[in-house]
Amino acid sequence: MRKSRIVAGAAFAVTAALMLSACNSGTPGAAPSDDGGDAGEETTSEALWEVSTDVSLEGSPTYDAMVERDGVVVGVKNDQPGLGIEDATTGERSGFDVDIARWIAASLGFSEDQIEYVTIPSANREQAIVNGDIDYYVGTYSITDSRKEQIDFAGPYFETGQGLLVAADDDSINGPDDLEGKVVCSVTGSTPLQRIRDEYNPGETVEYETYSQCVEQLKNGQVDAITTDQAILAGYVAQEPDALKIVGEPFSEERYGVGLAKGDTALKDHINTLLTDGGDVWTALFEEHLAPAGIEATQPAVDE
């Protein structure tokens, strides 16, 4: 398992006015920074917060485990451009979800070199949390009633909807009702895969461990479409706009949450407060990672 630094690009310069630092008292949230740096200066996402000190989180066994370990173990994705991606050469991780995970860790008093990222496929997420293999999971993790039978969620921190990705020159698919006789790809254990099987009529569905495998199958002509959340699909289109396109309108509502051990209310409340009070941080991360792919969104309110 690799410890990785995440360096944000120069696009953060446009959000210089939003540079914030977390309260050093350990209370989650963010306060405007007094940084008077040049607006054109290249910055990193670390400028948006400071690592909190004197953190107290009574009643959280997950936090107690972090303190005893002197570090945080976070479950993430590694193949979703704009959300969670791992550079194959350097091992560096970046994306909206990854930075949300880093922001949470900082609010709990842990610096970047105390974070360990673990790539966990969709089908294995609940079990990793139940087993205590990770402290929390941030990786396009839709909040569902069935998952809440095993784990808890903080958030939501993002909302999107299920969509379809096809080859740029394919005009035969314009929405889920056009999937009859088509081969549709998604990942094992995902809600989009189950929905497309239950509610629509694809000719065939195939599943892989990662969406990047589906993308390769689509480009090779082995499948006709990929289905998952449009926020994920937009990242692939941004990478290869001449080869891929999104068709139709979203046909579901997906609410991304932070996966936590069931019953850890103290940690859940801490993260919900951080998200609620940190709207400027959320906006800066969204503008950096997702807005360039053409995604439009506003920060959702957390569940009570």
Strand and helix map with partners:
Layout: E1 20-21, E2 31-32, H1 61-69, E3 72-76, E4 79-80, E5 84-86, E6 93-94, H2 96-107, E7 115-119, H3 125-130, E8 136-137, E9 151-160, E10 162-167, E11 183-187, H4 191-199, E12 204-208, H5 211-219, E13 225-229, H6 230-239, E14 244-247, E15 254-261, H7 265-277, H8 279-289
Parallel strand pairs: 3-7, 3-8, 11-12, 11-13
Antiparallel strand pairs: 1-2, 4-5, 5-6, 9-15, 10-13, 10-14
In brief:
This protein has 304 residues and is α/β, with parallel strands linked by helices.
Q: Please, could you describe this protein's structure?
A:
The protein is of the alpha/beta class and 304 residues long. It is built from eight helices and 15 strands. It has helices at residues 61-69, 96-107, 125-130, 191-199, 211-219, 230-239, 265-277, 279-289; strands at 20-21, 31-32, 72-76, 79-80, 84-86, 93-94, 115-119, 136-137, 151-160, 162-167, 183-187, 204-208, 225-229, 244-247, 254-261. A five-stranded mixed β-sheet has the order 12-11-13-10-14. The chain has a three-stranded parallel β-sheet with strand order 7-3-8. β5 (84-86) and β6 (93-94) form a beta hairpin. It is globular, with a radius of gyration of 19 Å.
Q: Structural class, please?
A: alpha/beta
Q: Kindly report how far apart the N and C termini lie.
A: 34 Å
Largest sheet: 5 strands, mixed
Whole-number mean pLDDT: 86
Find the count of extended strands (DSSP E, 2+ residues). 15
Portion of residues within helices: 25-40%
What does the radius of gyration come to?
Answer: 19 Å
Give the neighbour order of strands across the main sheet: 12-11-13-10-14
Which percent band covers the strand fraction? 15-25%
Number of helices: 8
Low-confidence stretches: 1-43
- Please tell me what the overall shape is: globular
Note the run of SSEs as H and E.
Answer: EEHEEEEHEHEEEEHEHEHEEHH
